[in-house]
Write a structure and sequence with these properties.
Elements (H helix, E strand, L loop, with lengths): L6 H34 L1 H11 L5 H13 L3 H9 L3
């Protein structure tokens, strides 16, 4: 016999998915800050944290991560990150 989910159960499930995604994005951002700190220095990592803000989605984090690879200098990196929508 099929079980019907209640609205409460659906909301709990959606909350769990959202919480997992949010935690995953925060983990990715922290790893990005560490990589930027190793390549360009802690000051640049802190500036990146301020530029991306608290609610950086996966697209912004991914774009900044690509910039770490593509850019040779901190100035070039920060210029590119500032252009991320």
């Amino acid at each position: 016999m099929a079980r019907v989910m209640t609205e409460y159960e659906r909301s709990l499930e959606e909350f769990g998915k959202t919480w997992f995604r949010q935690g995953r994005d925060e983990g990715r951002a922290e790893m990005l800050y560490q990589q930027v700190g190793m390549k360009f220095g802690p000051g640049v990592a802190e500036e990146l944290r301020e530029l991306l803000g608290e609610s950086s989605g996966p697209d912004r984090i991914s774009e900044a991560a690509r910039a770490v690879i593509d850019c040779a200098t901190a100035e070039e990196f920060l210029t590119r990150v500032r252009r991320i929508p």
